[in-house]
Known about the structure:
396 residues; three-stranded antiparallel β-sheet; alpha+beta
Amino acid sequence: MTINDHQRSEPDVVARYAPASSTDPHRDYEELRAQCPVVHSEDFGGFWSLMKFADASKASRDPKGFSSGQPFVEYPSPNCPIPISTNPPVHTFYRKFLNQYFVEDRVAELVPSIEDITAQQLSPILSAGGGDIYRTVARLVPPQVLAELLGLSATGWTDLAATLDEADSLRHDVHAFGARQATLWDRAVGELIADRRAHQRDPARDIMSGILALEPDGRAISEAEALSIGTQLFAAGADTTSSAMGSLVNYLATNPAAQEELRANPQLLPAAIEEVLRLGPPLHQTVRRTTHPTEIRGVEIPADELVAINIASANRDEDKFEDPQNVALDRERNPHLTFGFGPHMCIGAPIARQELRIFGEQLLAGTRSIRLAAPVEKSGRALRTGWASIIVDLTT
């Protein structure tokens, strides 16, 4: 990466920022925050990135200036993903509807199931004294929790997990990943829609039944709209949580002192989880499009330009976080952007936090030590933090 700070407002100068080929994105982000906090790249057809917390958070809560819409990867569906790529008032309608399924009481109802699912998946690897904890636990718990939330069949979660694995195998090719992922989710969600049309459940309790009963603009919801909402729930509800679990395991396995402190003071685990989420967000960037010309830090961004809100960089901004590169269990405030900010803040964040807490509690309680048995294998680089495998030795 090469940056000419004296001419940073010229796209042809700063275009040499190429996240798709970066081998150390966090080092690049640190350099960009210092030298070129509003930067242009030619990757993915050309886009701008906001590297500082203040700019990223401001754009996140300004749908009038930075609208949601087409993501980096163009999917074959003619409809933009609902609700993540919609804007008010359309987004407001769907978000208000979905909120009822993620309120505190509903999330609390899931906790016993999360505890049982996590214990079942952890038990074999604890008994074996180690193994690939990412593939056998972190990759499998969230699909089962999502299956419970959506009321899938007893075997539905295994189909969902297989879909996630196939999609993950394509992450080296972002365009192939986007096209194939749409096909995979359409198939899985289509089967759920067909089941609910044949066997309707209480729409106040069952999300898909509620989706099918929706009447946007006073009309019956279309099949494409129902498919789009369901696809968002499937795609966001499992994959990112698995990545966050992998990040938590990696942190514990590489920090023996932190393990001991958290075993002795389990009340600190939520703070550790928030720090892991801050330092290793599963998605590095989310994208918006400018609705009018705008100037940020002296850089002119034209209208109708893609703008990436760089979550991973904003979460390590020295102007927002003290000692931003390290975990601080006593951090008083941790307003990281990992779950988003503003109207598009992740609706499933309360469930993800419960999954991470329960997973961390059971892993620490069931072991005396956790350490890496082999170098971790990662997947994804430019747009996300992912894991291919995390092999650990466990002393129980």
